[in-house]
Amino acid sequence: MSTPRIGVLALQGAVAEHARALESAGAAVSTVRRPAELAGLDGLVVPGGESTTMARLAAPVHLMEAIRERHDEGMAMFGTCAGMILMADEILDAEALTGFERIGGLDVVVRRNGYGSQLDSFTGPLTVAGLPGTDLSPLQAVFIRAPIIESIGPQVEVIASWQDRPVAVRQGRVLAASFHPELTPDHRLHQHFVQLAADRISS
Ligand code: GLN
Questions:
Q1: Domain span holding position 193
Q2: Structural domains counted in the chain
Q3: Per residue in 67-119, pLDDT tens?
């Protein structure tokens, strides 16, 4: 199997941590700041950070639209925290994002900062369905100003929940999580995404 090529949107946020996790999961990793850097990618990670900042930084080069187009052509996407917000089809408190393009493509409704402020950050054990390998132990999930997934569409599969709410979901070639899987040494969710992206190469 050829090595999957995964980009990390590098406008802001935990870019280096995602790159390390993806490399340890067997991907060839590059950073993306401009549409041309999306060429040839099998998958793209959109990290956490601040969705409003990322949308503003992407606007002058129309990067959000370019990501959406590449995804429509088959590129897989993994959105974490702010990244998930940018992929959500609907945001409940979207005032700060008004007038800015987002990626879309994930049939969920999210509420920004739904788990509270920076001071309310927490880590919790999560059982995630469908992870590769034989290690079935919970993944330690770090939540920082995390978005709440208020509802999901019929095509969306919930792969992990926290207190009866979905916090990791999958819809076709989109994976998304409310938390920060790049901040812990457990890279099983990144492995899962690299396999998802690789499916296109082998099929
Ligand atoms: N609350 C942030 C936003 O709205 C996301 C926080 C995060 O990515 N850790 O973009």
A1: 5-202
A2: 1
A3: 999 999 999 999 999 999 999 999 998 889 999 999 999 999 999 999 999 99
Residue nearest to atom 2 of ligand 1 (CA): 50
Q: Write out residues with Cβ below 6 Å of ligand 1.
A: 48-51, 81-82, 85, 112-113, 144-145
Q: How does pLDDT run across 1-26, given as a tens digit for each residue?
A: 689 999 999 999 999 999 999 999 99
Between CA 32 and CA 6 the distance in angstroms is 10
- Between the CA of 172 and the centroid of ligand 1 the distance, in Å, is 24
- To the query of whether residue 182 is one of the catalytic residues in this protein, the response is yes
Give the helix, strand, coil percentages of the chain, each rounded to 5: 30, 30, 40
Structure pTM? 0.96
Binding residues for L-glutamine: 49-51, 112, 144-145
CATH number of the domain where residue 151 is located? 3.40.50.880
Give the contacts of 199 (CB within 8 A, at least 6 positions apart). none
